[in-house]
Every structure is written in C-alpha cells, then in structure tokens.
C-alpha cells in the first residue's frame, strides 16, 4: 500500500545523516550561548565593500563563535535578532533543530515572515558555523560530504565594469576569458514594468528588452546560457506574452515572473510556454515550497539561505525538490556568507543545477573585507576546507567606524 504523499515527504525530510551529525555534535565540549552581537551599515556607501547586510556573531562560554548573515532591511533584522536573544542566551548552540523550531513557533505568533524569518535564517547560519568550528570540520562534512567537488556558476550582472543593457557581450566575454563562466543572468524587462506600473507590456517594450538578449545570442550562439530574471514584476497575461517572445532565444530559465503567493497561476504560466520556470528566492520555509512543488510549475527550485530559514530549512527544501526530481539553483546575490553557506550546501547536495555568483563581489568587494575571499576558476567554485563555513572577516571590516553595532548578553 502506497504511503500518502505528505507522510512520504515528512519521512524524506528526516535526513539519514541527522543522527550522525547529532552524535558528532554531542561529542563536542559542553557550551552555552553567552553573547549575541549584530553589525550592519545604514547605507552601502558607508564602507568600501558595498555592504547591505546584517552580520550576526554568537559567542559561547567555551570561546567558540559562529557567524550568521541576512539582508537587506538591516535595522529591522537586527531588532528581530536581539528581540529573541533572551530565548538563545544560556542554550546549547548544538541543538540546532530544537532552536529553529522554538524560534519559528515564537515568530509565528507575530505572523512569521519578513524580518522574523530573515533573523531566524541568520541565527541558524551562525549555529551551523559554530557547530563546524567546535568540531573542527567544514559544514559540508556535517550535512552529507562532498557530493560535488566543484559547483558550476553563472554570473549576475550587478553594477561593475559594463552595463548589461548596453554591453552584455563585453561582460560575457570577460567572464569566459578570465573565469571560465559561460552563463549570465540579466533583467532587461524591469524598466518596462516600472514604466507601465506592472500592469501591461507593449510590443515596443518587448522589442527593446530583447536587445541585450539578441546581442548575447549573436555574439556567442549556444556557447552560453542566458538566465532571465523578472523580480516578480508581471501579471500572468504579460508574463505569458514575454515568455513566448523569449522562446526563440532559448534562455536557461525564466525566474520569478509572478508574485510568489499563487502557485496555481504559476502552473498556468508553465503550461503556456515551452521555457522552464525558476521559483523562488522570495519564498521562506518548507511549507511554502511544498505548495509550489505540488503545483508542478517550477523546473528549477531557487532559495536564499539567508531568507528561507537558514541552512536547516534550505536542506529540507533541497530534499523536497529532489523528491520531485527537480534541481536547485541557490540565490546568492547578497552578502558574502550567503555565498559561502550556499557553496557548502551545493557541495553536499545531489540535485544542483548551477549556483549564482557576482563578478563585482569576488573581484572588488570581498577582497576589501575578507581574509580569504572565494573566487571562481574554470567556471566553478570549490568549497573552503576551513572549519564551519570557512569565512574569515577582517577585523577592520567588522569594527568599521560606520558600522552600527548592538550586543545582547555578556
């Protein structure tokens, strides 16, 4: 007799490795959380590394610390973190699942989401970083080991050397020649959405937005992959029109065309185009993703580990996607720990299509604030082997004079 689908998914989410890493964690020296510190900047221009995130540090009485991160509503997220500091101080930081469940239920009384879920994500990442450091092990070893020794990357075109609307081929050529990256993400339809109040799109709008896509295909043919980002700007009618206009250019995916709250509308969009849909960095928690997966709309599952509930929840979402035989493609266009933590997850996951990267970050911003910035090679990234997530922040970055710092505990 077949198990009901929900029972099957519930069993799947209990990783066979859970007992192994819990046993390893119990062998670590006893410790308690004693202090929580947040650091953020009021504006990106306040520091030379373009910050728009909140860093979190959890200190223990054993001297081991862990770093977490979320973004971009920094003051709200820092307030949410310190708002639950009393529920964290004095607890054993190795009890990651218990802490996650307790905080989620606490936040649910406030209608969990937004700053609360991002705060939980930062706390969870700090606990995983702390666990790895306490065991002298990289996090990927605690969640399954090295499934993917290297993880394939695409580039998201944040402002840097060239404008992707005018010179996308220059960005792509430089990435191929210097980094071996052969995939690029652009969002040329956003201007029309702003002009038209997200209500409609004209053929003239479409022709204008297709220009950078044409330039990329003309310059590189099928040598490259093109990912199309839409930032949830469109209604269903406009999204179908755009998708059909893009079909001759064979993009790798159409990302977040609609607002994420109605999976049935995404299903209708999926049936209206031959192009695959990617959904959605904006969603938080496995229950939202279960509804999305049940709608059979997505061909790629995207999440952000600093938004969706941290590594604890991202692992479960990735496992759910695997049960539907779908690949994941994590969103990493945030702070540096987002990229480090995502790389540990993709290194350990068996259903990874590709991972996001930003040339500006690893060439310009991260070297200014990190002692060991990650950088792509031959189109791939390799996970750091240091304990925890392996990200080392320069003291002058953490203690930057423009940073806003707050401490709970002693």
Description:
By secondary structure, the protein is of the alpha/beta class. Helices cover 43% and strands 13% of the residues. It is built from 17 helices and 12 strands. The strands form 2 sheets. Strands 4, 5, 6, 7, 8, 9, 10 and 11 form an 8-stranded mixed beta sheet that branches. It has a 4-stranded antiparallel beta sheet with strand order 3-2-1-12. α3 packs across α6 (115-135), α5 packs antiparallel against α6 and α11 runs parallel beside α12. The longest helix has 21 residues, at 115-135. The radius of gyration is 21 Å and the shape is globular. The protein starts with a helix and ends with a strand. The relative contact order is 0.16.
How many individual helices?
17
Please describe the biggest sheet, giving its number of strands, its sense, and whether it closes into a barrel.
8 strands, mixed
Q: Round the Cα radius of gyration to an integer and report it.
A: 21 Å
SSE-based structural type? alpha/beta
What distinguishing features does this structure have?
globular; 410 residues; eight-stranded mixed beta sheet; four-stranded antiparallel beta sheet; alpha/beta
List the helices and strands and how they pair.
Blueprint (H helix, E strand, L loop, with lengths): L4 H9 L4 H9 L6 E8 L13 E7 L4 E6 L3 H10 L1 H4 L7 H13 L6 H21 L3 H4 L8 E6 L11 H12 L3 E4 L3 H6 L7 H18 L4 E5 L6 H11 L6 E3 L7 H10 L4 E3 L6 H9 L5 E2 L8 H14 L12 H13 L6 E3 L1 H11 L10 E2 L13 H4 L5 E6 L1
Parallel strand pairs: 4-5, 4-10, 5-6, 6-7, 7-8, 8-9
Antiparallel strand pairs: 1-2, 1-12, 2-3, 4-11
